[in-house]
Design goal:
The protein has 200 residues and is of the alpha/beta class. Helices cover 38% and strands 16% of the residues. A seven-stranded parallel sheet has the order 1-2-3-4-5-6-7. The protein is globular. The relative contact order is 0.10.
Length: 200
């Protein structure tokens, strides 16, 4: 616990001012960081309860999250079940309580459909990385994950092209492709591709 708090303090001293974790994880070190004068902002991931309930969203808000976003897996699940309205409900709950509301996705179709539905989040969060690494998916591999669980951005150029038309700010995540791409290559690629922020 002490090392985690030390890391948060060091990050904050170097200008990193936000952290992103799932609300159901042990976030006690973030809360202790605040008690000791830390100012790190917390962006919380939230999933839907069974039946589409929003208790995780409310828990994040009640625990002090500056922003809450629909987790990518959860958004894709709702899209797959034809329940995009649930994603919109999550966004509206967060915004109604004066927090920053977001929608995350591995699959670009989530953002495409949310834009069509006028979801109006404060931000999007989307996976983005090149395929210039050893275990990158081959042309015949389709889907969000490669054969070796190695890809979360199956068509990076499609992401770049679509997000260039989106008015909302967006956070690029999984930019290192699980450590396969070095930061010196991944960071500039994300920013040069239009990302407003990166989550690493």
């Amino acid at each position: 616990p002490a090392k985690i708090r030390e890391t948060l303090e060091k990050a904050e001293s170097l200008g990193i001012n936000a952290i992103n974790t799932w609300v159901m994880d042990d976030n006690s070190q973030i809360f202790d960081h605040w008690k000791n004068g830390g100012k790190m902002k917390w962006f919380s991931q939230a999933r839907f309860d069974e039946g589409g309930g929003l208790s995780q969203f409310q828990r994040a808000i009640d625990s002090g999250a500056a922003g809450v976003h629909v987790n990518g897996d959860a958004a894709e699940g709702m899209l797959g079940r034809g329940q995009i309205d649930k994603i919109l409900e999550g966004v509206q709950l967060v915004k109604s309580q004066k927090r920053i509301a977001g929608i995350a996705a591995h699959d670009l179709r989530v953002i495409v459909e949310c834009e069509k539905a006028k979801a109006d989040p404060d931000f999007y969060q989307k996976t983005l990385h090149t395929h210039e690494y050893y275990t990158a998916p081959h042309d015949d591999e389709k889907g969000a994950l490669g054969a070796h669980d190695n890809s979360w951005c199956d068509d990076p150029q499609a992401v770049v092209d679509f997000m260039a038309k989106v008015k909302k700010p967006w956070i690029a995540f999984k930019i290192l492709a699980a450590g396969a791409i070095p930061p010196r290559a991944a960071f500039p690629y994300a920013f040069n591709s239009g990302a407003d922020f990166i989550l690493v």
